[in-house]
Amino acid sequence: MTESQTTVLVPGRIHPRALERLKSAFTVIQTDPGAEMALSEDDKAKITGVATTNRMPAHWIGELPNLKVISNFGVGYDGVDAAFAASRGIIVTHTPDVLNDEVADTTIGLLINTVRRLPVAETYLRGGRWEKEGAFALSPLSLKNRHVGLLGLGRIGIEIARRLEPFKVKISYHTRNPREGVPYTYVPTLIELAQSVDTLISIIPATPETHKIINADVLSALGSNGVFINVGRGTSVDEDALMAALKSGTIAAAGLDVFYDEPRIPAGFFDLPNLSMLPHVASASVPTRNDMADLVVNNLIGWFRDGKVLTPVPETPVKG
Question: Which residues contact residue 123 at a Cβ distance below 8 angstroms, ignoring those fewer than 6 apart?
Fold first, then answer.
């Protein structure tokens, strides 16, 4: 069977570049959002590959008897049941590394926006208030002399840390195990990390262990001068606790690129002057998303042409 005769399912939406390249290489079946598995039994039997944007639960996988490989658009793949796929010998891939720099750059930008209130200052200027009301208020916070704690020090975390070094801040981190060969201070627990720093950046994935791990106790430990930044997954944060901490002054400010139930944002967040928000855009540049799209397709081509993939997830039964 040639690649063009290989049938790949695209359940719902995917990046246009990925879809274009998929159609040039494979026979593609694309379903509508909300009806991702509305397929005939004949079509289900034909499908041997899937290209998805972080949605492939176990019951979908179970409906495709001849599925061999799932290629996920995104470094995070919590919406793909990789463990179930592995139990059936199905390969799962994702798109690490190609987005590291973009996410790290955005994290630094979000941190500066949060501390210095730059978006608020621009809105002040654009509204004509500078001329009418005078200078914009001094920002109560600064990045100078801060101690930054990284919750997670994987590929993206390392890039964030490297970008922080020129700002002359102290850097600590917490992960399950210390990393060798890094110049940053390891802290054995999250609560100890929050107690020792005044700026906490979360870059952790969504897992049962990380669900709402940023809670009232962690925020209280971060303290009244504390700044919290999240570019990992929204499910790692207890948003009610965060809202309460921002309102009460338990922490000074927060910057979020991800949310628990995005794109739905808690209504109370919009009224918080010490909260900076972005609509999950950390990797959202044309060059980076094109690179991610290419990697999705290249993983599928590699598997069906050579029996090898470029970027398998840790759970997958084949390592490339």
Answer: none
Rounded Cα distance between 70 and 179, Å, is 30
Domain 3-98+286-306 - what CATH class?
alpha beta
The active-site residue out of 117, 146, 233, 289 is 233
**Coil, helix or strand at residue 93:** strand
Which structure tokens are listed for 116?
């210095």
Residue type, 86: A
Model confidence over 109-166: pLDDT tens digits? 999 999 999 999 999 999 999 999 999 999 999 999 999 999 999 999 999 999 999 9
pLDDT in tens, 236-261: 999 999 999 999 999 999 999 999 99
* Sequence-distant (≥ 6) Cβ neighbours of residue 142 within 8 angstroms: 115, 116
Assess contact for 313 and 93: CB atoms under 8 A: yes
- The residue annotated as part of the active site, out of 3, 13, 280, 315, is 280
Residue 233 is among the residues annotated as catalytic for this protein: yes
How many CB atoms are located within 10 Å of the residue 155 CB?
15
Whether the pTM exceeds 0.70: the reply is yes
Question: Does the pLDDT of residue 306 top 80, yes or no?
Answer: yes
**CATH number of the domain located at residue range(s) 100-277 in this protein:** 3.40.50.720
Catalytic residue among 147, 163, 192, 262: 262
Confidence of residue 77 (pLDDT cuts 50, 70, 90): very high
DSSP E strands, the chain: 7-11, 27-31, 47-52, 69-72, 91-93, 147-151, 170-174, 185-186, 199-202, 227-230, 253-256, 275-277
- Residue intervals in the chain for CATH 3.40.50.720: 3-98+286-306, 100-277
**Rounded Cα gap, residues 50 and 30, in angstroms:** 10
